[in-house]
Amino acid sequence: MSVRDRLAVAVLAALLPIEAAEARGAIAMGSDRIRVVYEAPKTAAYREIYDTMRRRRVLERVGAIIGLVRLPTRLTYRLKECAGEPNAWYAPEDRSVTLCYELVAGIQKVAPKTESPAGVSRHDALVGPVAQILMHESGHALFDLLRLPILGREEDAADQVASFALLQLGGKEARTVVNGSAYFFATTGKYEPVDKGSFADVHGFSWQRFYNLACLAYGSDKKRFGYIVSKGYLPKERAEGCGEEYDQVAFAFDTLIVPHLRVRPGRGERLRRAFEGAARGR
Questions:
Q1: DSSP E strands: which ranges in the chain?
Q2: What is the C-alpha separation between 88 and 79, in angstroms, rounded?
Q3: Which of 50, 103, 164, 254 is the most exposed place for a label (fewest CB within 10 A)?
């Protein structure tokens, strides 16, 4: 079974809007290593975010994916209020991934009311960025906890881990994450300053992240994501090498992360059931 097949069931089950009763116990396979905390917000405007993310068990679902890895110690996922700062981060000192209410609220604010001129729905513009951000920070966690070597900027590598994992979704779900994340990168890119300080930052520009995501998506499936090139979102010159870029990321993932999975690769339907059970808590 390919890396795509091994991850597809886990990621899809983790991110679909299933009811809480179905998701309960979703991180059972790695329950001794994954902890989730939803801190109730003091700001009333964030209460709906708190209720919705708890009901849909968003942190548990991401934890279900990362829980498929043999982690050497506990990893905590936390949703909290951050004193007005729209942010998310991984903290190695206490081995935790934090997502701020302020960042989720910002994603809600820039999302289209119904649909963007490019055809991105409000649903996609909400789901895509949250999934990408949580998986990006999970990438940082895996680098630290598994002591994985990184050649290049860690922020770029974390983006690649997030994009690769989320691209394992099938059909509509993959397009939801790609379209939503791309919309968020493009929107935030409009307001980013272009100065020396920005070039010195450890993070890439939002437009760079947009094109990197678009390239990996197109490289993963040129038929499914052909519209990215045909509609002019990705220059044809860049698109020519996207298959190789995707294969490079897939090789790195297979070499560095797959050996740490709790289930052995290449075991067909037995492996597929193991991933599905981890994600759905069976």
A1: 34-38, 75-80, 88-91, 96-100
A2: 9
A3: 254
Outline where DSSP puts E strands in 44-203: 75-80, 88-91, 96-100
The contacts of residue 48 (CB under 8 Å, 6+ apart) are: none
Q: What is the pTM of this model?
A: 0.84
The residue type of 123 is: H
Instruction: Tell me the residue range of the domain where 110 lies.
Output: 3-280
Q: Are 281 and 28 in contact (CB under 8 A)?
A: yes
Low-confidence ranges of the chain (pLDDT < 70): 1-31, 169-170, 196, 199, 263-282
Residues 216-255: pLDDT tens digits? 999 999 999 999 999 999 999 999 999 999 999 999 998 9
Sign of CA dihedral 16, 17, 21, 26: positive
Q: pLDDT for 251-278, tens place per residue? A: 999 899 989 988 655 543 443 344 444 4
Burial class (CB in 10 A: 0-12, 13-18, 19+), 272: middle
Q: What does the alpha-carbon distance between residue 153 and residue 226 come to, in Å, rounded to a whole number?
A: 29
Nearest to 59 by CA among 39, 44, 42: 39
Q: How many domains does the chain have?
A: 1
